[in-house]
Each structure stands twice: as structure tokens, then as C-alpha cells.
Design brief:
- The structure holds 2 protein chains of 2 kinds.
- By secondary structure, chain A is mostly helical.
- Helix content of chain A is about 60%, strand content about 5%.
- Chain A has one domain: Glycosyltransferase.
- In chain A, α3 packs antiparallel against α4 and α3 runs parallel beside α17.
- The radius of gyration of chain A is 24 Å and the shape is globular.
- The relative contact order of chain A is 0.13.
- The N terminus of chain A is likely disordered.
- Chain B is mostly helical.
- Chain B has one domain.
- Helix content of chain B is about 75%, strand content about 0%.
- Chain B is built from 8 helices and no strands.
- In chain B, α1 packs parallel to α7, α3 packs across α5 and α4 runs antiparallel to α6.
- Chain B is globular, with a radius of gyration of 16 Å.
- Chain B starts with a helix and ends with a helix.
- Classes of the chains: A mainly alpha, B mainly alpha.
- The interface between A and B is large, with 38 and 36 residues.
């Protein structure tokens, strides 16, 4: 009964076996070509991480102007500056540089100090709070700028071990509080004309930015930030996407930072099931993103099948989220989360412009160390990528 | 990987009602032998899955997405397509291999599910699911109705079940950490 196959019995069996073989080949071939593209996660080593961080810091140093601003959006192909500027991303890169300085990259501090000095020239004090005013007088205040500047100064406090800015930190925090609604929603803008938050204004990320700043402020200068921070966290976790009509759900890397910070709050853990579930949801969204992004190579076929590669800021942000979420106790044991975070870092390392690659641009000094896509880079590409690599560096030091 | 989803995709895609006619051998022992070898093969594929995924640079969730997508197509085909025509009976000693093991019992769509198995619990889940599904195929071959209309509708119902389970598998892969 279980004898060997004797193909001479007829063509019917050969035909069926051949058809089956063809089905296997076509199935796996089609799957590989269409769905199962290789996920290229590069090789992540501490040397590569440190080298990439130093290159990004050096880029920030080379593109810093004497007034403390950077070339905001730079076209490396034509060596031209787009000539625009705003303070959200200025504060973001300043913060990333203080993060780098705090992590032991000494060159970052002097650059951050110059950028910090520029930002302070835009501070406005009012009603017991201070905030970063917009560069164009009369425009609405962007909450994100003050949130990220507050975070930058909190890292600066770590670097300098100075408490001289504590009053400013408190004032910046109070500006954020004025923009939080009883529901926990954070107005994206404050209107200098009305002297009040712009009701109903929101942005995908300003709520998380404010939350992260408040959670960190509570650890450094505890007291008035705890209740509003938890209110905003609850709003983000349970209500935000529906209330603000966001579809798909926001993959909020700033909220991920905040959740990691909440995990480190002293005393009884505030990360209840609701917040832990939200953390997992963010992790799932970011994991999906990096699994997809790592399949993009920039080749013609890849662009047709997967679209063009994401901005450095995009890959950086999702890597920041994945690395941050490892601090959430409910996710800390997840090997897959760690793998995805490392994959994000690997993608960033592979896409950073090397010294050799920079030589093909008219001004190699402005291209080297940057994350360039379609010939362009913007300061938040370096900001998010640098922050992400710093987190991964830290992650590698832990089991 | 959700165990019940794996069981359902195996049961659905193995689809005893659509496969009976393709098992064109006269000896029931050949059907059982082919099913047994297939179960062992799926188990082996599940064991090898992690190494294969690593070699191809494909993550487990993405393999699930691929398996889910393919099985949605397989399930839909079972819903809308007529029963396959019965091929000529093959009375040969190697009937357990062709046409039982190949192309009926050992199928590329289910091999993809096996490749997507977790390193630990997934192998047992795949082996158990394959055992149940292929035992059902063998059992239906022995006792099944010869009424084509009944087989057509039962096969379509299992096709619909395959679609539901495949979508679950797909979502498992999409929203994995």
C-alpha cells in the first residue's frame, strides 16, 4: 500500500504532481513578490549607534547659524535653504541635543546652549505663566513649541545640574495647564487676541507633547502637575481619537514617552489597565509601521510596491515610541517590541548620509550626518532620529 | 497566534467537502497514510518556520498577514466556485503520495500558516489543527454523502468559515507587537 511512486502508471499522476508543484512555486513566489518583502533591519551595534549620534550632533553644529537658529529645511541637491522657520521643531532639536549631552555626547551641549539662548529671546510672560511666542507677532501660540522647550530645559537641568531655571520651568508648565480642558483635551493653540486657548483646536501630537512635559515636570518639581497630567493621559488613552475624529488612531510617540515617564513616577503605579492597554495599542501601531517601513528600499520596484521611504523624522518617531514603551511594565518583557525598536534603529543607521555619500552633494558638510529623502532634510529629521538612537543606545545597555 | 483561528483555517481550508472528489484512490488506507504524512509535514514546517522566517528576513506577524491574505482568497474561492470535477481514479501503490498527499493534503496555503507558527506553542497548535482538519478530510472520504448539492453547500459554508478565520489571522498579524 505504501510503496514507492511508479510514474510509469500514467500521465494523470505526473500531471497532478506537476500542477501541485507549480501551485507551490506560484504561491510562494507571488507571496514573496507581493507580501513577504524582506524586512531590512540593518545591524545595530553600540559603535554604530554612537557614531551616528555623533554625526547627527555634528550636523546640528555645522548648520547652526550665529543667531542660534538652524537651516530649517535644506535641499541638499541644490544646496538651498527653504527660508522658513518655526519654534516647535527648533525646540525639538534643542531637546534632542540636550538628550545627547545628558547621554554623554559632550559636543551637543554647546550647540544646544546657543539654540536655547535663541529660544529664550522669544519667551513671553503673562498671567503667571511664560510661553514661547510665535515668530510672527499676532499669530497664535503653538502649545507644542512650549511643551518641547520645557522638555529641552528639563534635560538641560540634568546636564547642568542647575536649578536656576526652576521658576521658568514652573511658568512654562503653567502655560500648558491653561490650555487643558476639564476633559483632558489640550488646545493646540492659544490666542493672544482673546487671551484664551483656541477652543476646539487640536493637533495629532501637541496633546502628547504637553503630556510628556507635564509628566517629567511632576518628577522634577512635583506638586501641581500630577492631576492634570493624569487627566490628559486618560483623555489620550480613552477619548482623544474619537473626540478629535482621528482615523486611523494616532500612533503617538509623545504619549509613549509620557507613558514611560509615568512608569517611573514614584509611589504606587499610575499605569492602570486602561493606560497599559493604550500603551499596547500604540506599540501595535508602531510595530506595524516599522514592519512596513523596513520593507522599503527606495528601489523602483519597492517604490511601486511599498511607496517611497519615510522621512527620517517618521522612522525616528516610531522608533522613539517603540523604545519608550519598553519602560511600561506590561510591555517590558516583550521581545518582539525590543526587536521592532532595534529594527527602527537599524533602518535609521542605514539611511543616515555617510561622509562618502555626502560627497555627491554640492555642499557635503550640510548633507553629512543628515537623514535626506528626495534630496531634502528638515531639522526634525535629525531631532527624532537622534532621540531614537539615544533611546536605543540606552535600551542596549539593559537586558 | 490565536489557537482557534489556526484550527479554523486548517479545518476550513482543508475543506473535506471540496476535497473528497480529488482523493481519487480506491484504498482508504492510502487516504489515512497521506493525511498522517501531511500532519507530520505541517509539524516539521512549523518547527522550521522560525529559521525560514529568519532566513527570509520576514517577521512572524508579516508571515501571518501573508497566510491570512492567501486564505481569504482560498475561502472565497470555496464559497463561489463549483465543486472540482472528479479526476480518474488512480489505483497505484503510491496513491498515498499522489493524489492524496499532493495535491490534497499538503497544500501551500496551509504550509504558510505552519510557517507562521510561534517558536513555542505554535508548533503544537499547528500539529493539532492539522490532525483534526486532515482527520476530518479522511473521515468524510469514508462516510461522505454522494449528493453533489449537499457537498457544494457544505463546502461553501466551510469556505465562509475560512474567510472569517483568515481575517482573524490577518488582523493578528497586522496588529501584532
Amino acid at each position: 500500500m505504501l510503496g514507492g511512486v511508479r510514474w510509469a502508471r500514467g500521465t494523470s499522476r505526473r500531471r497532478r504532481a506537476g500542477a501541485a508543484l507549480l501551485a507551490w512555486v506560484l504561491t510562494f513566489g507571488a507571496m514573496r513578490a507581493v507580501v513577504l518583502h524582506p524586512e531590512r533591519c540593518g545591524t545595530v551595534t553600540t559603535d554604530r549607534l554612537d557614531g551616528a549620534i555623533d554625526e547627527a550632533v555634528a550636523w546640528a553644529g555645522r548648520t547652526l547659524r550665529s543667531d542660534g537658529t538652524w537651516i530649517y529645511r535644506y535641499n541638499a541637491e541644490t544646496d538651498t535653504d527653504a527660508g522658513i522657520y518655526e519654534l516647535v521643531r527648533h525646540s525639538g532639536l534643542t531637546m534632542a541635543l540636550y538628550q545627547a549631552a545628558a547621554a554623554g555626547h559632550p559636543d551637543a551641549r554647546a550647540i544646544a546652549e546657543q539654540a536655547d539662548a535663541y529660544a529664550r529671546t522669544n519667551l513671553v510672560a503673562r498671567d503667571q505663566w511664560q510661553a514661547l511666542a510665535p515668530l510672527v507677532p499676532g499669530e497664535r501660540y503653538d502649545i507644542g513649541a512650549t511643551s518641547l522647550f520645557l522638555n529641552a530645559l528639563l534635560y538641560r537641568r540634568t546636564v547642568t545640574t542647575s536649578t536656576a531655571d526652576d521658576a521658568l520651568l514652573t511658568d512654562l508648565g503653567r502655560f500648558l495647564l491653561t490650555n487643558i480642558a476639564p476633559s483632558g483635551a489640550v488646545a493646540a493653540y492659544w490666542d493672544p487676541g482673546t487671551g484664551a486657548p483656541v477652543v476646539g483646536s487640536s493637533s495629532p501630537f501637541s496633546t502628547g507633547e504637553a503630556l510628556w512635559a507635564l509628566t517629567r515636570l511632576e518628577r522634577v518639581l512635583p506638586g501641581e502637575w500630577r492631576e492634570p497630567a493624569l487627566r490628559v493621559a486618560r483623555y489620550i488613552a480613552t477619548t482623544r481619537d474619537e473626540a478629535e475624529d482621528r482615523f486611523p488612531d494616532v500612533a503617538d510617540h509623545w504619549a509613549a514617552y509620557a507613558l514611560a515617564e509615568l512608569a517611573h513616577w514614584p509611589g504606587t503605579s499610575v499605569l492602570d489597565e486602561e493606560l497599559a492597554d493604550y500603551a499596547r495599542h500604540v506599540g501595535e501601531l508602531e510595530s506595524l509601521s516599522i514592519r512596513y517601513e523596513s520593507q522599503r528600499t527606495g528601489s523602483t520596484f519597492s517604490r511601486l510596491a511599498r511607496g517611497q521611504i519615510a522621512l527620517g523624522a517618521g522612522v525616528g518617531a516610531l522608533t522613539e515610541a517603540l523604545a519608550s514603551l519598553r519602560s511600561v511594565p506590561a510591555l517590558s518583557a516583550s521581545d518582539s517590541l525590543r526587536d521592532r525598536a532595534l529594527c527602527g534603529a537599524g533602518v535609521l543607521l542605514d539611511r543616515q548620509t555617510t561622509a562618502t555619500e555626502a560627497e555627491r552633494y554640492p555642499n557635503p558638510e550640510r548633507a553629512r550626518g543628515a537623514w535626506i529623502r528626495e534630496g531634502e532634510t528638515q531639522i526634525d529629521d535629525q531631532q527624532h532620529a537622534m532621540s531614537a538612537l539615544l533611546l536605543i543606545r540606552d535600551l542596549q545597555a539593559t537586558p | 497566534m490565536t489557537a482557534w483561528a489556526v484550527l479554523l483555517v486548517f479545518a476550513g481550508a482543508a475543506n473535506p467537502f471540496r476535497r473528497r472528489r480529488c482523493l481519487s484512490v480506491p484504498d482508504g488506507r492510502q487516504v489515512i497514510a497521506g493525511a498522517a504524512v501531511a500532519v507530520a509535514a505541517y509539524g516539521a514546517l512549523a518547527v522550521a518556520g522560525a529559521s525560514l522566517r529568519d532566513a527570509l528576513d520576514v517577521s512572524t506577524p508579516n508571515m501571518r498577514v501573508a497566510a491570512g491574505l492567501l486564505l481569504v482568497v482560498v475561502g472565497l474561492h470555496a464559497v463561489v466556485a463549483p465543486l472540482p470535477a472528479a479526476p480518474a481514479t488512480i489505483d497505484a501503490r503510491g496513491g498515498w503520495l499522489v493524489p492524496v498527499l499532493v495535491p490534497v493534503m499538503l497544500r501551500p496555503d496551509l504550509a504558510l500558516v505552519a510557517f507562521a507558527a510561534d517558536r513555542t506553542s505554535g508548533v503544537a497548535t499547528v500539529a493539532l489543527s492539522a490532525s483534526v482538519a486532515l482527520a476530518a478530510v479522511a473521515a468524510w472520504w469514508h462516510v461522505g454523502t454522494r449528493t453533489p448539492a449537499a457537498e457544494r453547500w457544505l463546502g461553501a459554508a466551510l469556505g465562509a468559515l475560512t474567510v472569517v478565520a483568515a481575517v482573524r489571522l490577518l488582523l493578528d498579524g497586522v496588529f501584532a507587537l
